[in-house]
Specification:
The protein contains eight helices and four strands. By secondary structure, it is mainly α. Bound molecules: zinc ion.
Length: about 170
Amino acid sequence: MIDARVNFDAFDNCCAYCYQKGVLIAEHVIPESKGGATGAVNCVPACLKCNRAKKNQHPWLWFSRQASFTEERWQKILLVLGITDEYINSMFDARKVDNTKIACKLPQLMEEKGINQKQLASATGLSPTTISKLYRNQLDRFDRNTILKLCEFFKCQSIAELIEIKGFSNE
Ligand SMILES: [Zn+2]
């Protein structure tokens, strides 16, 4: 790993985003939580203010809303790191796929029991919208009540019979 400090000179030891001098830290352009590496391949100098404000946001989406944004500065960041907009976007999209790795086994459970969504909603007292979203694996938050009612109805011994986690995020 090549230390991020080698990139500081490329920005004249100024913040890559706002060009202020002062205390600079190595800022992950692609956030670590999105799989961004540590070191010269992914880090630029940033002032504490920019680093704190950007956090784990998409670098272009964040930077383009800042008063200091210019296309030239953005291109410079891409050039120094040797990456493209497409590459950054792919890292963020990969993350979205990751989030769908929580799979609800509702369709299988319902098929085994031979009931449809409407019947399940009336039997559990859960809203048809919730059932429908769970069925299509589109619900990204499970509340305690929903889990308990479904586990009770399907007589699940553990939550794993209802929800399958196919991969853990690195956050
Ligand atoms: Zn700054």
